[in-house]
Structures are given as C-alpha cells and as structure tokens.
Amino acid sequence: MDLLTALGAALAAAHFGAPLAYYAAARRWLKTPWRIKPDPAYLPAVTVAIPTYNEARNIEEKLEDVYRQDYPRDRLEIIVVDSASTDGTAERAKRWAAAHPDADVKVVEEPQRRGKASALNAALATARGEVFVITDADCRWPQRDALRRAVSWLADPAVGAVTCLKKPTADGPATVEAGYRDRYNVLRLAESKKWATPIFHGELAAYKTELLRKIGGFPLDIGADDSHTATKIAAMGYRAVAAEDLWCVEAVPRNGYHRWRIRRAQHLLQHLLKMPAAEAPPPMRPILLAEKYLHLANPWLLPAAVAALATAATPPALALLAAGAAALALRPYRTWAAAQLYLMAAAVRNLQDKELIWDKQDK
Would you call 73 helix, strand, or coil by DSSP? Predict the structure, then answer.
C-alpha cells in the first residue's frame, strides 16, 4: 500500500472511529444511575422568558402553551421580550395578556433588535422567579407538566440547569432531522448521566436564577446562549443535565433547512471554541474535550481522507471511495455525512458572519 492510500485510510479510520468510540462510551454511561433526586413537590417561583421577533403567527399559541401548564399560577411569571418586531407580535402578546388576567404576563418592547441573548438578559434583569426558564415562540411543550418536571430536577442542590430532549415536527426536512435527533438525544442523556452535557436546548431550558446572575447572564458575543450558560454553570461545579422525562417539539423550517442547520452549527461552534475545557470540573472535562474534537476538528478529516484516496487512485483507495459512496444509500450514514458538511460550512461561515442576529425563517 502506497503512502497516500495509507494516509487516506488512516484519516478515514480516525474520522469514523472517534465518534463510534464516543457513542459506545455513551451507551455505557446510559446504564449508570443518575445520582440525582428530583422532587415533584418542589414548586418555586418560576419566570418563563419568551424572546420574540416577528412571531405574530406563533406568540398567542405559545402563550397558551405555557398557560396550559399545571404549574401554580401564583408562582408563574411570563415575560415576553419583543425585539422590535414589524408584524405586531407585541400587540398580540398584550392582547392575549389582557384576555387572561389570571396570568402574570409582562411584555417588554426593545427599541431595536439586538439579538436573542440581549432579549433574555432584559427578562433576567426583572425576573422574580427562583428558576428562570427560556423557550422559543415556535416550539411546543406537549407535556402539561413540563414545567413541574423541569423544576423537579432543580430541587437537587447539585443541579444548576436542566433542559429537554427534542422531537421535530412535520415531514420533509423533519424526517432527516429525526434521524439526526435519535442519536443526538442518546448523547445528551448519556453525558448528563456521566455528569453534565455542554449542549442545551432553547426550546426549554431551566436555570437557577441566582446562578445565571452569578455568571453574568447570557453571552452577547456568541450564539448558543442556552448551551454556554449551562456549561458555565457546570464549570461552577453544578450539574447541567438533559432530563430523560422532559420532551419538546421543535419546528423545522420547510424552506431554508440547510441554512437553518448551518446557523445552528455556527452558534454551537462559537460556544465550544469559547469554553475552555480546563474550566470544566474533572467529571465533565472528557465530555467537553470530546465534543470540542467531534465538532471542531473531526469533520475536516473526511475531506482530507477523500482527497488523499482520490489522489492515490490505487485499487485499494478506489475501493474505499466506492464503499463510502455506496454507504450513502444508508440513511444513518447520509445523516452523519450531512452533519459533517453542516459543521464545515458553519466553520467557514463563522469567519465571515457569526449570525447572532438572523432573518426570520417560516416553519
């Protein structure tokens, strides 16, 4: 075997071997006990923050979504922070609030659009809840006791933040997204059982308000504000977990799906680059290091392997390339390959624009 063929084969083995090894470790972690004691009787004051921009189609249904929760009304505050919408989102939120006087709803209108993190910080500044929950206007909580479930995990003094697992809606792009989410959710649960996951979900993420304020709120210079705050809280020695009994339904855009995936990948890469592994507590450090490698470095081994094998053009090299092409017939492999392309595109895009403020996409 010539040098280029050997190099290409080694790069391909490393590219596929590292995530497979991590996934195998994750499957073992799933078998470990939680060492967390959720308490369903724990019912602190909760603030739910809903940042909006041109969400007129969704805001009333989202408010109903939160309103339907079986959490005690006298312990639930809802803050809608509208970032200079042009479609009447704030007016619809105010109208809904007026029609539901038993709900504690505040509508904060920002004079200009500054991004999601800025809106969340505006809500955090006046939040009265001991627990601060963030959610998106275009997602839904299918469980009427979602808030109770989330908060129950925070009853344990060792837990500082908790998030949901996710299911996509609709068909089309959502079918691809579902395949990706299946393995994604396994990793989030496994990391949580090990100690903490560095990847949170803005559809439903709950934090102890005191800890959020200690870390200075949500970062303004990167995306993935939900994940970064949770990881900063974990760096303080608390656990940040994805709860196995907590689910949200996320809307997936029918148009612009690839752009949506790239933007989300951009924000995740920004978070992982900004968070030093040295700051993570020892139980979380291998998790953070693995996620950094898998997102920041590993994707680039794939094109390097393909380039080396194509340049070598030896029978073994061509056989490996043919096997890789044939594997695209398998949905899990296509899902994996697409994720690598999104991560590489996101890394390049981050050199030009961080996409901290983005165009609204219909879902």
Answer: helix
